[in-house]
Amino acid sequence: MKRITIDPITRLEGHGKITIFLNDDGSVANTYFQVPELRGFEKFSEGRPAEEMPQITQRICGVCPEAHHMASTKALDDLFHVQPTSTATKLRELLYSAFFVTDHTTHFYILSAPDFVVGPDAPPAERNILGLIAKVGLELGGAVINARKQNHWIIQTVGGRPIHPCFGLPGGVSRAINEEERAQIEEIGKQSVEFGKTSLKVFDDVVLKNKEYLDMVLSDTYTQKSYNMGLVDENNKVNFYDGKIRVVGPDGKELCKYAPKEYLEHIAERVEPWTYLKFPYLKKVGWKGFVDGVDSGVYRATPLSRLNAADGMATPLAQEAYEKMYSTLGGKPANYTLATHWARLIELLYAAERLLDLSRDPEITSPNIRNIPTATPDEGVATVEAPRGTLTHHYITDERGVIKKCNLIVGTTNNYAALFMSIKKAAEDFIKPGVKITEGLLNRIEMAWRPYDPCLSCATHSLPGQLPLEVTIYDAHGNEVQKLSQGV
Amino acid sequence: MNTLVVGLGNPILSDDGVGIRVAREVAGQVHDPRVTVTETSGAGLSLLDSIAGYDRVIIVDSIQTKEGNPGQIYHLGLEDFSLTKYFSSPHQINLATALELGRMLGMAMPQKVTIFAVEAKDVTTFSERCTPEVERVVPGVVKMVLEELNG
């Protein structure tokens, strides 16, 4: 048996490793996916005042601190039995919308777009943000930087600090905004909506008008019929900040819809002997192994799953884009993994529209930003949608509000089983007897996991815009016969 | 000359936070208004946003190399990034690419970039403290940054 190892050894956080075992004839015998686990967060949290959790949990991840801050703040509302004021709720969602604009922008232009704009088989040295700008022009490059910068300004202004906000308190937020700030946010909201529209046009021009790419999106290699999870509002529209968790099958039927507090009734975790990772699955359906279909409890929590799990978008332009996507892809739900990039851009536009709406809300500059909690704390659970999946924080405290137990289900964790299956399927489809293993081929395997934007504890999102991969091929006796690497 | 000192890393993940440990020490010892000391966990594009407009940037980060010893200090310049094409820090900073992107887009990019990197031992355990091997070199790295600032 031969062995192929994809091992980005130089990465500290987020060191992921794909190992592919080959049969003697060169076909794939099995695939494994492993990442090291960050240890001791529960112990680290125990004994701390719960009010510290929004500050601490956002340090877990260097990529989406705002998501942890928000889930944690909402868990404190629940823990202290206090409802935030209407203005506080709106300010939180406003900041969160700005965050989604920055994060989805980064993911699309740095990680996803180079595969399509520069080409999946282009040399890694060109398949990056620089190659992208060389192709599409400086103007768009400037717009990307500008969209991020402006929305980071909103996060800093509303949240009190760039990247790591410090405004979330049980029952509200720590600071109101004034009219001058509101007007500036409104202006950024307008520009962000235009940027969202432009981004969808880029996708349209580059991917949808290219038959080869559209065929790739629709190909069986990148198709996976798993359950879809996402937060929805009272009208079953996508919501990032609040709502119920809805799960819809690959056949389009609703399996369940539940409040965050009930998550343990719906989600269980599967342990495999070959990895530290635990694989969450749907209890109602059960664990049937790494297989797709309605009888398998494997689910996805990605931008595409959120759209699949909902009945639509709550803002007009995003709704229009939503309808166009499903009509192009042949209806709902869409089980095409690569369409996740498209869904992400629809979410970007939705976030920009929400940002603009909230900036125009008459209550947004109200000084009524906090309800002071008076009840005794005991247990709190909250869920938000992080860019990479449904994020749940669960705290249990003593009567003083000191943490006794803390459980987090972070975005990417939901997708571990599905992610593993996507990689396995791509590896099996691309690595065939007699086929030379090239960098382009490796990239096509990598393209199966890029839509998930796996946050293997943090580090997969920054420049140079690709995961470092190393493929070592061993012969049947374990001797190294070929080595390929990119970005390592 | 406007200078930015950036401590990079995660302050609650053992040695991953060494850059931030150093930056905090440096901040307490520098009183020059032309020097700004900051800390961040955001690399890549976020780093690009942070460094734009400064004449000089000093970055302090953790690193893990194949045969390095915990606590080993590396003093690197931009040329090391172009020479070692595959240099990759925990935060995936490819500074050469970031700077090239900034210049391409007409942003004011620093003329000089210096990196101090400390070989990490443990970056997977949640702790506000570095391991002893890394902790003991913190004063030395602080001194090197201060010398670089004055040099």
How does the SSE layout of this entry go?
The complex is a heterodimer of chains A (488) and B (151).
Chain A: E1 2-6, E2 17-22, E3 28-34, H1 41-45, H2 53-57, H3 65-79, H4 86-117, H5 129-136, H6 138-159, E4 168-169, E5 172-173, H7 179-208, H8 211-218, E6 227-232, E7 244-248, E8 254-258, H9 263-266, E9 267-271, E10 278-282, E11 299-300, H10 303-309, H11 316-329, H12 340-359, E12 379-386, E13 389-397, E14 403-409, H13 411-414, H14 416-430, H15 439-449, E15 469-474, E16 480-486
Parallel strand pairs in A: 6-11
Antiparallel strand pairs in A: 1-2, 1-15, 2-3, 4-5, 6-7, 7-8, 9-10, 12-13, 13-14, 15-16
Helix pairs in contact in A: 4-5, 4-6, 4-7, 4-12, 6-7, 7-12, 10-12, 11-12, 14-15
Chain B: E1 3-8, H1 18-29, E2 35-40, H2 45-51, E3 56-63, E4 73-77, H3 78-83, H4 95-104, E5 112-119, H5 132-135, H6 138-150
Parallel strand pairs in B: 1-2, 1-3, 3-5
Antiparallel strand pairs in B: 4-5
Helix pairs in contact in B: 1-6
Structure description:
The complex is a heterodimer of chains A (488) and B (151). Among the domains of chain A are: 2-35 and 420-486, no CATH class; 224-331, no CATH class. Helices cover 41% and strands 18% of the residues of chain A. Chain A has 15 helices and 16 strands. In chain A, a hairpin with a 2-residue loop joins strand 4 and strand 5. The longest helix of chain A has 32 residues, at 86-117. The radius of gyration of chain A is 22 Å and the shape is globular. The two termini of chain A are 26 Å apart. By secondary structure, chain B is of the alpha/beta class. In chain B, 34% of the residues lie in helices and 22% in strands. Chain B has a five-stranded mixed beta sheet. Chain B starts with a strand and ends with a helix. In chain B, 50% of the residues are buried. Classes of the chains: A alpha+beta (488), B alpha/beta (151). The interface between A and B is large, with 45 and 43 residues.
